[in-house]
Hints:
mainly beta; 31-stranded mixed β-sheet; six-stranded mixed β-sheet; 49 strands; 64% strand; disordered C terminus
Amino acid sequence: MKNLKKFWKNSVLFLVLFLSGNAEAQVLTQKESTVNIKGTVVGNTENTSLPGSTVTVKGIEGNIIGKVITANDGSFSVQVKPFSTINISIVYLGFKDYHAYKLKIENRDLDLGRISIEEKSTSIEGVTITASRKKPLIENGKDRIIYNASSDISNKSGNAADVLRKAPMLTVGAGGDLKLRGNSNIKVLINGVPSRIMAKNLKEALKMIPASSIVSVEVMTNPSAKYEAEGAAGVVNIITRKKLKGTSGVLDLTGGNLEHTGNIALNASSGKFDFTTMGNYSEEREKTASLLERINLQNGKQTGNLWQQSDLLQTSKGGSANLSARYKIDSLQTLEASFSYWKGSWPQSGRLLNRYNGNGGAQEYRQNILQTGKFNYTEWMLNYQKKFKREGQELQIIGQASTSSDLSDYTTEQYKTDGTFVFREQGPNRGKEKEWSFQADYTHPLSESGKTLLETGVKYLQNHSRSAYEVINNYQPVDPSRSGNMAYRQSIFSAYATLNFDLGDDWTLRPGIRFEGTDINATFQNAAPLSRKFSNWVPNVLLSKKMGERNEFKLDYNERIRRPWIMDMNPYSNAVDPLNVTQGNPYLKPELTRKLELSHTYTASKGSLLTSSIYYSSNKNAVEQITKVNDKGIAFTTPDNIGESTRVGLNVNTVFNPFKKWTVNAGAEVFHLKFRSTSLGISNNGTFFSTSVSNTVSLPNKFSFSASADYGNGFITLQGKNSANYSYRFAVKKEFLDNKASLTLTVVNPFQNNFRENVYAYAPTFQSTQINRYLNRAATLTFSWQFGGLKAARESSFSDNGEDKHFRKKKR
Length: 812
């Protein structure tokens, strides 16, 4: 009888196991198996990841089962036994402790998704002010390094160029030229969206963005196929918006001996609507003194020489305004519309003294120079985003349209040394431009777990530009080819696909391909029309491996292109200095860059970060400025496809806390650059390095102190090289009015009146040395005020970065 009962008992147990799809061996090893609990910790203020958070898993009796530190992206993973009940706690400095009790763990993995923890705040007289917790200065993302500019007090004054010089791998020269790993061909985005204003005149546009309005800077040397292939060096994304709830605002006012800026941002929310408006104004003076000595050559023999001395003053004035409205249709859909307006000018006045000896004899004269640069720019954008119930599935549609008008002209008056007037010449250049684009991006999970994703999308862009230029001279005959007009049209169709694979054992693979077809047509008054079509298949592959919670390695290959810009192609000649003329080249070809990079990231338990990478890149049809001197001693500088260039480099960046209230951000880079032009028969190469360091110290009585500096030993071009450049600054900040207001005193280069830069150039037709002195000693005082209910938006199923997750259980 006992045997019969045992038989039936075993038979029923076998049937139950069979119907549930589990093998008997699974029951026998059940006690030895584990399940995976994972999630991502984010802050509720801006929905950003919180690396370095401590996640503790305890049993129902209070015993610790597991304890981990979140990775760079805020993610964590803990192995526990199935069929148990656990409690989870999360601790992060500046945030309230998070607790989840009595979570039942079955024989399935548990994905907790994005866990939003609440930032500590202080309630004052009925107004909730968010605690001023600073983000880490440097964060490492999946395919980018993030510099949190708002965490550096020295960014309260200055402009965007001053902020970018502190970001990893970015350098800003004495003349304001932005470079990424020594390459100036960069695609710059504003809040993740390309803006034509950045492509038209990056140097001047950056001056119009106050440093105080920048939240963070994202540097992507290996962007995915989702991003446009434009920009040989990579992509820089400037984030200027903070997402706040309720009615709130920020005001920054700066005054100093060389700059004056103002920035205001207002936010209002009502129900499903969010309204944001921003406005800023900037004014900056730049003084430069230069000395140029040039020897003209013919067949290796000197045929003449030029000596020039100049003093120039440029006053850049400009401002922008932005209005955006966001409507939350439901928990999964949003619609956002925005309008932006930019206006700027950068008049330059100066004096020029010339002494020239050549085939035509000796001559000496002086000039009064006035150059004018102005632009007006408007942009409209409509952005629709839809999330689906399936985790990771998302659709985004963006439409943009922009118009601009430009004025770039010069007036030069020449006098003999005794003051006798010789002639006046004017060279006006007026342009108009229209551009519109449409793009759609879609993300679709290919597996039930969501670990394998497909990202795909299309974009169409069309640009129409016109330019009219002429030369007006009251004395000398003018070359008719220096007057005319140009009409330019560019159409680009692109499509891309990227796959994100989780290969298991902390391996990730991201292959991608992007197609871009370009159609260019241009007509000229004094030259033959130009028509060109070309297509580019741009691949990239990213392979990453995590080794524990501390180390991550990445191997990346990608290709980037650069199309000729309208300012490069415009044949307009700027002859403000008749012995040094610059002009465009309408027959430029696109250049292609290939790059291979290996990088490593180490994250310490207290939020310290160390990133390093080694890379190699090669460039075909490289576009460089080429200078030639004719037999009359006139130098003509124009962009041209010189041939090829290669570079190999190593960069390291770290952020750490020597003491509790002291944060250090330091970086260094070394690279070897080589240019070679078979057509011109010349080459150039050199090894260069740059380094930067930033220190921030919290002091008693709500004071803080910052000291930063950067140094580079110069750079080369095909025809020459520049000497070293450096800058340094100190800032002291005092908070008051319950941390709602602050005063920041900043001094820049206080121990030197000017910075000297030597520029050497050489070619078969000339050799020259130019000494530039930039008067850059400055002091500023900035007042900042946060007003209104600065209360962070509550976490919802929709976010700006498209990485929301819900509490979901997944089968093993």
